[in-house]
Write a structure and sequence with these properties.
The complex is a heterodimer of chains A (78) and B (377). Chain A is α+β, with helices and mostly antiparallel strands. Chain A has a single domain (6-77), classed as 2-Layer Sandwich (Alpha-Beta Plaits), CATH 3.30.70. Chain A has helices at residues 15-28, 56-65; strands spanning 6-12, 33-36, 47-51, 70-77. In chain A, strands 2-3-1-4 form a 4-stranded antiparallel sheet. With 377 residues, chain B is an alpha/beta fold. Chain B folds into 2 domains: 2-10 and 266-376, Aspartate Aminotransferase, domain 1 (Alpha-Beta Complex); 15-264, Type I PLP-dependent aspartate aminotransferase-like (Major domain) (Aspartate Aminotransferase, domain 2, 3-Layer(aba) Sandwich). Chain B contains 12 helices and 12 strands. Chain B has a 7-stranded mixed sheet, with helices on both faces. In chain B, helix 1 packs antiparallel against helix 8 (248-264). Classes of the chains: A alpha+beta (78), B alpha/beta (377). The A-B interface holds A 12-20, 22-23, 34-36, 43-47, 69 and B 31-35, 40, 43-44, 46-47, 50, 61-62, 224-230, 234, 236-239.
């Protein structure tokens, strides 16, 4: 079984919010990709931006700068 | 066949639109329903389309809500903002997509005043101001009449709305994609558009662009792919007004259409359509028996010429044009009952010729020749 790794997860209120995050991260060359929201975060559906935890600061400053429609930021083992 | 019924729908679409829809049908999953490539592909194209539309109309991309057409957008805008006791101002120039939602709201206790149109289909702008009451909540009007092509001065009406703190709701069915529309500068709170007319996209596409801070109650609620355990529709735009699977395949086509318009340039498209309108108008206006409706003192207007020939039943004239000349037009009442009454054409209707980027001068000349020939018989 694959060993779990610490991950940073960012969730969104809307799919449009997730798409905006993906576009901005690609534009700025920031790490991560969209995955279905792990159910350990919420049993709601939707997408989460999954990135290495060390990218937290740079991603949070991007979220703030671009007023991205995020719902929460989490760190967990995936 | 010469297709001159573009105000109903543009028949000829850019090749890129057709191939985008085909490709989408072969490759796209359901947007926002999973993280696999096919679902993400749908989400990405839909997101890019929101961005294109936001740039076209000057609004926030996450406030571009997709609908099936203008009618759906107008129903959402009107029923989502007006309450019993509210008063709303509209005009005689409106299509039933505005009128019927208003008439239904009247049954629910909303009152409506209409700015009258004259025999040329023109309105007086002072009338908007004169109709405002303490209960007035909104002004709703078209950007250009689907019957006469007359344009309304949206910046002017928007300024009146803003000066009185009213919502400004616009039906851009006949102008989106060909005429510049600036929601921010013109004070438009809710812009309703369809994708299949001058935007040259597929039928079943359209949208409602919501100004910042404007609250619209969801008209339909349901699956969104997010916030599943919430018992109500998520409050954030655009999801707030988008329940159920979007028309992703159509939206992919709409994106290709927007890109096409961008590559050709809206100004060039408008100039071409204006030239065709002018050519047709000049060619038919002096034919004995022809009556043209609308204000042709300016060609800053929608590419539409509606007319009658003597006392011909407009349906029969349109049928003759179709059967004997292969020219497609629209007769009848054009879903614009108040304007037909104002023009005095309730009985006869009118034959509408409407032009598009893909029409040619030769087609216009053929239509002129056909009308001359019929008039001479």
């Amino acid at each position: 079984m694959r060993e779990k790794e610490p991950k940073l997860l960012i969730t969104f209120h809307t799919t449009a919010g997730a798409m905006a995050m993906e576009k901005q991260c690609k534009q700025d060359g920031l790490p991560g990709r969209l995955i279905p929201v792990p159910r350990s975060i919420t049993s709601d559906c939707g997408m989460a931006w999954c990135a290495p935890p060390e990218a937290r600061d740079v991603l949070e400053s991007l979220m703030q700068r671009e007023s991205l429609d995020t719902a929460g930021v989490y760190e967990l083992l995936l | 066949m010469i297709y001159l019924d573009n105000a109903a729908t543009t028949l000829k679409k850019p090749e890129a639109v057709i191939s985008a829809v085909v490709e989408a049908m072969q490759t796209m999953g359901n947007s926002g329903r999973s993280g696999h490539d096919e679902s993400l592909a749908a989400s990405r194209i839909i997101y890019r389309t929101r961005e294109s539309l936001a740039s076209l109309f000057q609004c926030r991309s996450d406030h571009v809500v997709f609908t099936a057409n203008s009618t759906e957008a107008l129903n959402m805008a009107l029923s989502g903002t007006l309450d019993p006791g509210d008063h709303v101002i509209s005009t005689d120039c409106e299509h039933n997509s505005v009128l019927r939602p208003l008439y239904r709201l009247m049954e629910q206790g909303v009152s409506v005043s209409f700015v009258p149109a004259d025999r040329q289909g023109l309105v007086l702008y002072d009338d908007f101001e004169a109709l405002i009451t303490p209960r007035t909540k909104a002004i709703v009007c078209t950007h250009a009449s689907n019957l006469t092509g007359n344009k309304l001065d949206l910046p002017r009406i928007g300024a009146i709305a803003k000066a009185h703190g009213l919502l400004f709701i616009v039906d851009a069915s006949q102008t989106a994609g060909v005429f510049p529309i600036d929601m921010e500068c013109w004070g438009i709170d809710l812009l309703c558009f369809t994708g299949h007319k001058s935007l040259m996209g597929p039928q079943g596409t359209g949208g409602l662009c919501v100004g910042e801070g404007v609250e619209v109650r969801p008209w339909k609620v349901g699956g969104t792919g997010v916030q599943t355990y919430l018992t109500t529709q998520p409050p954030q735009y655009p999801t707030r007004l988008e329940a159920g699977t979007l028309n992703g395949h159509g939206i992919a086509g709409l994106y290709a259409a927007l890109s096409y318009i961008d590559s050709v340039s809206m100004d060039q498209i408008r100039a071409h359509e204006s030239l065709l309108t002018r050519r047709f108008y000049k060619g038919i206006k002096d034919i004995p028996g022809v009556t043209v409706y609308g204000d042709f003192s300016t060609f800053d207007r929608g590419p539409i010429v509606s007319l009658n020939l003597a006392d011909w039943d407009s349906s029969l004239l349109s049928d003759r044009l179709s059967c004997d000349y292969g020219i497609a037009t629209r007769p009848g009442a054009h879903c614009a009952p108040r304007l037909h009454r104002a023009l005095g054409t309730e009985e006869q209707g009118a034959v509408r010729f409407s032009f598009n980027w893909f029409n040619t001068a030769a087609e216009i000349d053929e239509a002129i020749r056909a009308l001359r020939e019929i008039a001479a018989t």
